[in-house]
Every structure is written in C-alpha cells, then in structure tokens.
Amino acid sequence: MSKENIISKLEAMLFASGEPVEAAKLAELLELDIENVTKMLAHLGDLYDERNSGICLVRIDGKYQLCTREEYADDVRALLEIKKNTPLSQAAFEVLAIVAYNKSVTKSFIEQIRGVDCSGPVANLVQKGLIEEKGRLDLPGRPLVYGTTDRFLRCFSLNSLEDLPELPSVEEVEKIAKDNGQTSLFEDENGKVLKEIPKEEE
User: Fold this and answer.
1) Contact assessment for residue 60 and residue 49, using Cβ atoms and an 8 Å cutoff
2) Tens-place pLDDT, residues 1-12
3) What is this structure's pTM?
C-alpha cells in the first residue's frame, strides 16, 4: 500500500467519523504502527496548510479530527443556520419517530429498522436540536445513544414521551397507505423504496 493511498484512507476515515479519532484506532484498522500513522497524519495536516484549504486537521488530546478553519466560521455558521431552518424530510421524520417511540437508541438500531444508512437524518435532527446524544453503550466500539430533547416535546406540544399517540398496527398502516395510492411504506432521502406494500392476492 503506497503512502499516498494510506493518507487518502486516513482522510476518508476522519471525514466519515465526524468525531475525534485516536491514532491507535486508525493504526489498528489500517494494520500499521502508530508512529507511521502519526507521521502520515502530520503530512496530511501539512497538505491542507500548503494549499490553504478550508479544512484543517486538528489534534485534540491525542485524537485527530477534520475541522473547518476558524477564519471561515461565519460563512459556515450562516450555512448551518439556513440548513437548521429547513423543513424535515420524510426520512428525518421516520428517524425521529423511531427515536421517540424507543426513547433511547443507537444509530445502528435505527438503520436496522429502516434498512438504510441514517447518518444524514440523524445529524440533521441533532443540528435542529430535536434529538441529542445521551451517552454511550458499554459495548465494543462504545456506540452513541440518541434520545429526544425538550425542544422536541415543545415542537410537538407534548408534556412527555408518554403522551405520544399509540402506534397503529402494520395492517392499519398498510391499509392507509393503499388508500392513499402509495406503493411503499418507507423511502430514503433519494426516493429509493425501502419497504414495498404487499399486493393483495387475486
């Protein structure tokens, strides 16, 4: 594996993580020693600096994370504020319902139910303050647990999650969907069908 290829992999891993990652963890995943990984991370940071990139590599308590540069904070903040005020997508509503009715869930649990990656909707809901990180499970990888916020309750005029309406049965949902001319129960953000409504036997 070439040096350039390894640096590209490190960049992709840090970008996808969105959180600080220990050099030891990166080294373990790439089956390399920590010293080499640390040197390549330093080189990656230098590359961003040399081309005056809007992205920089920061080290936080021995962990590494990709961040936007401070001088572009106002522009990034303005963009995020616009995104924060955009309406929720169908996918985000589905994720929000899963979190609310299960009270505390991991992203992998949400994805198991929806059958598709939910990183975008989850991040969007966190950004809007409707769900938040509630801690980590004591399991391998220490997965994050998400739950709803007080803002969620205010937005939906609820005193507590106990006030959520009872969920309809699958048969009731399918009947409503058929009555509305739908051919699927769930779609992702790109309109891809995640669950077809079974056709009635002739």
Assistant:
1) no
2) 788 888 999 999
3) 0.48
